Task: structure prediction
Amino acid sequence: MTLFTRLSAAAIGLALTATTAFAEDCAAITVEDSFDLEPDAIVALYDCLNEKMATGYAKEGDEIGSNFRSWAATSTRPAVQGAHGNRILNTFANDIAAEQYLKYQEEGFTMPVGSILAKESITVSIKKKKARPGPLLMMTKMEAGSIPETNDWLYTGIQPNGKTMKVKQSFCHDCHEPYEDSDFLAYPIEEVRLGQ
Result:
């Protein structure tokens, strides 16, 4: 290895280290509560972690984890929803779900069988003053009567490293129970809903 080659390799290594440091710094937060994050700060965190989330969810080859970003976006930007541990969420709806879901209807409907919602999440650690990718949380509407205890919703998830999450159905559905009138759907907050 020539001196030039060694110097080039060292320079590339230094550049990668600097890039990694910047990626970590761009996820730093200064607020005391995730609800105190301003919209531009939420977008900046999402932009910072965007590629890491996409790569991580797809890492194990899961079909949804690899393709959900080609689905319909359900909001103008990610937002803190209040559920899911006060994570920042960004929800996508597959072709079957999109038309009904984007009406943000409050009652009197059932989502079509085959509807899938995929929610990217960013976990905000107030203690560590940092944000990091959270799991990709999914809801799939199954055949009528197939899972009566969850009104036919199947709750699943993918960890940020692409591994499948173990999900207790009752744990997820208990949180969705207050939204029975809207087929157990909790929509993005009003200020970020498309067309609102």
User: Anything to note?
Assistant: The longest strand covers residues 116-125. Residues 31-192 form one domain. Residues 1-23 have pLDDT under 50 and may be disordered.
